[in-house]
Amino acid sequence: MNPTRKRRLIIVLLVIAAAAVAVGLTVFALQRNMNYLFTPSQVEAGKAHAYSTFRLGGMVKAGSIKRSDDSLKVQFTVVDASGAMPVVYTGILPDLFRANQSVITTGHMDGNHFVATQVLAKHDETYMPKELKDAMAQAHAGKHIDESAMPEKTP
Amino acid sequence: MTPELGQLALILAMLLAMAQAVLPLVGAWRGNRALMATARPAAAGQAVFVALAFLILVWAFLHFDFSVRYVADNSNLELPWYYRIAAVWGAHEGSLLLWILILNVWTIALAIFSRNLPEAFAARVLGVLGLISVGFLSFTIFTSDPFGRLLPMPMNGADLNPVLQDPGMTFHPPMLYMGYVGFSVAFAFSIAALLGGSMEQAWVRQARPWTNAAWGFLTCGIVAGSWWAYAELGWGGWWFWDPVENASFMPWLVGAALIHAQAITEKRGSLRAWTILLSIFAFSLSLLGTFLVRSGVLTSVHAFASDPRRGVYILVFLAIVVGGSLLLYALRAPKVMGGKPFAVFSRETALLIGNLMFAVAAAMVLLGTLFPLIGDALHLGKISVGPPYFGLLFPLLMTPVVLLLPMGPYLRWGKGDGGLLKGMLIRCAIAAVACAIVAAFFVDGSLKAIVGVAAAVWVGAGVLLYVIKRWREMPHGRRYPAEMAGMLFAHFGVAVFLIGVLLSESLSVSRDVRMAPGDVQTIGSYQFRFDGIKQTTGPNWHAEQASVTVTHDGKLLSVMHPQKRTYPHDQVQTESAVDAGITRDLYVALGEPMDAGNLHGAWALRVYYKPFVRWIWGGGLLMMLGGFVAACDRRFRVKRTATETAVTTAPSPNTRLAGEAQA
């Protein structure tokens, strides 16, 4: 093998090794950091069982928001058309967090309630995140979803 | 009547854009000089009509013409005039119009400054820009007409989203678009070179200032967006790996690679195909960025409700641009390759490694951003990719870049000089280790902070050593030409940025607390006392405003006034208060009242102590400055003599065009 070819071979091998490391790391990082979105009825059906951390999405049930007297702890119930899940969160809620609005919370199950580490409400107060709308539609294929729970984007 | 004139102007602009696209390209192909000469007048005419349409939309906003649906949707009688102008690009239709306007500004600038280019090449470049313009104008006219009427005319409009009512937001989109669109110039140069079948180093030299300036604007836009997120969203973070941030970050990464690749190609003639490929990717990612943000395919802060026709148009347009240019690349790239060989140990190799890292980082961000879409398409469920994915991979990919960065200027083109490099590396390493040891006493053993100091000193010392070297060795007046100065500014910006990121990430203290009036929170040596709430009003909002008194070691430092604003239509917006400093920011955001009925009781507050956070944007601004300064270099504008071109030009198969280049 002449020196030029040898050098090229080394370069090609190095590039392949680097690419393998990059792909391996990427797959590892993706697997660790993928979060699935479920609605309360999907969680009740046991679909979220396999995931330690996941996102729970739905509407905040009217009248369910309860604040603690001495800390930032807050409890509320996230509902979809047929399921309900109590959520506990400690911290400041986003500006657009209100009853009858859609939220997406990230966290884990603790017994029969969900402990959220992050609560997101969308910036446009009449806007339902598309993925949440899809997930809710999927969870109740064929069922009628209460109009007030599905606000449409209106001018 | 006026809005219809706006629409008419857009249609005329599109006809002229078609002329600008087709005639010069046909002319360059057939060698017809009359057809080639149509490029500049067509571009000028198009720019006039686009500017007219844009001004008519601005006029409609300033005069509350709510019979125009777009105006009624995005402004109302209470909105102050400056935010009514910003509202022009506050939503999908208007921001597309802004994109087109900026494309025309760049095209006109190019038409003026491209007199040095050979006629056929300039005609092709302007023709490609015309094609892009046709794509965007037809998208606007057929799917997103900003001048659509709303009948009956409402008495008052809806509101501009309150998160957009901030000075940062006024500058953020235009700057970002200047960057996105600026990459269209490098793209047009590359496509023109592929079409013509040859690529002169002199042309790459002419393309460089455009890329540098575009990258500078993009940097500015990203910095403005990051600052806005910090000050306005009330979360105190500066980067969230949000899909829309990623959309602007991918072209930035590829643009940074492109700047360096163009330098190699211009100076040495090597890596032509790679430079062309990067410019195709930079522009494609800019297009993807524009569309990702505005089409609503990704759920995000910035996304607007979408219309399925738009999605289909976008997909087709992207497929034509990306697919078409890559096909052309596959067919023609072998014809334009060439250049000088280089050793493994050389400046070319160092730049190439940096280039690869930037490209891989962009691919990594692209994968993470599009993965939810892929997962959705393959029915894997509703997935999101969390920030830790990016937070793990990005620093890993950038580590080699940071390590290599100070070496670049010390390595020679072609074959590096080991002795020179060794001396410099030893000094940088000693400086970095020494500063890291000193820093270790101040940061409570936080490894991230120590690494941050070491990395920043490594880069900063390397840049400063080179500044001193040039000062000693070069004669007065030739020490720091603009291109060199730009490089030094941008690289020093990296050092400043590293300090900001790693120190603020590792040493920040953030607390969400419940405070009744009179309560005190202590963070480090700072005491925050909550002094209660009072009502206040602005031009189109009313707010609860808190008073937070900050003392430092018992001395009064400042009184901060975070607000919770309520806009018409009950939109609520947190307005955080920031006490800025060079070594630290104090940041207070108002949460909600613990008891909704009692505003004068306890509130939730978010209190931050953020050391060196300002250095993040400072570093970004230095990088931006570097891009602009480098773009000003006279060398890029001076026409080279024919003999010099002949010497530096690699043999070109297309002798007719090469001959023209020297003519």
Automatic annotation (TrEMBL), chain A:
It is a single-pass type II membrane protein. Keywords: Cell inner membrane, Cell membrane, Cytochrome c-type biogenesis, Heme, Iron, Membrane, Metal-binding, Signal-anchor, Transmembrane, Transmembrane helix. Residues 30-155 are extracellular. The lineage of its organism: Bacteria, Pseudomonadati, Pseudomonadota, Gammaproteobacteria, Lysobacterales. GO terms for cellular component: plasma membrane. GO terms for molecular function: heme binding; metal ion binding. It comes from Rhodanobacter glycinis. Residues 1-8 are cytoplasmic. Heme chaperone required for the biogenesis of c-type cytochromes. Transiently binds heme delivered by CcmC and transfers the heme to apo-cytochromes in a process facilitated by CcmF and CcmH. Heme binds at H123, Y127. PANTHER family: CYTOCHROME C-TYPE BIOGENESIS PROTEIN CCME HOMOLOG, MITOCHONDRIAL. Its main location: membrane. It is found in: Cell inner membrane; Cell membrane. This is Cytochrome c-type biogenesis protein CcmE. The gene is ccmE. Belongs to the CcmE/CycJ family. Gene3D superfamilies: Nucleic acid-binding proteins (2.40.50.140). It comes from the Bacteria. GO terms for biological process: cytochrome complex assembly; protein-heme linkage.
Automatic annotation (TrEMBL), chain B:
It is a multi-pass membrane protein. It comes from the Bacteria. The chain crosses the membrane at residues 6-29, 41-62, 96-113, 125-144, 177-197, 209-229, 249-266, 273-292, 312-331, 352-374, 389-412, 424-443, 449-468, 480-503, 612-632. Residues 89-295 form the Cytochrome c assembly protein domain. It holds the Pfam family Cytochrom_C_asm. One of its GO terms (molecular function) is heme binding. Keywords: Cell inner membrane, Cell membrane, Cytochrome c-type biogenesis, Membrane, Transmembrane, Transmembrane helix. GO terms for cellular component: plasma membrane. It is found in: Cell inner membrane. InterPro entries: CcmF_C, Cyt_c_assembly, Cyt_c_biogenesis, Cyt_c_biogenesis_CcmF. GO terms for biological process: cytochrome complex assembly. Residues 315-634 form the Cytochrome c-type biogenesis protein CcmF C-terminal domain. Belongs to the CcmF/CycK/Ccl1/NrfE/CcsA family. Required for the biogenesis of c-type cytochromes. Possible subunit of a heme lyase. This is Cytochrome c-type biogenesis protein CcmF. It comes from Rhodanobacter glycinis.
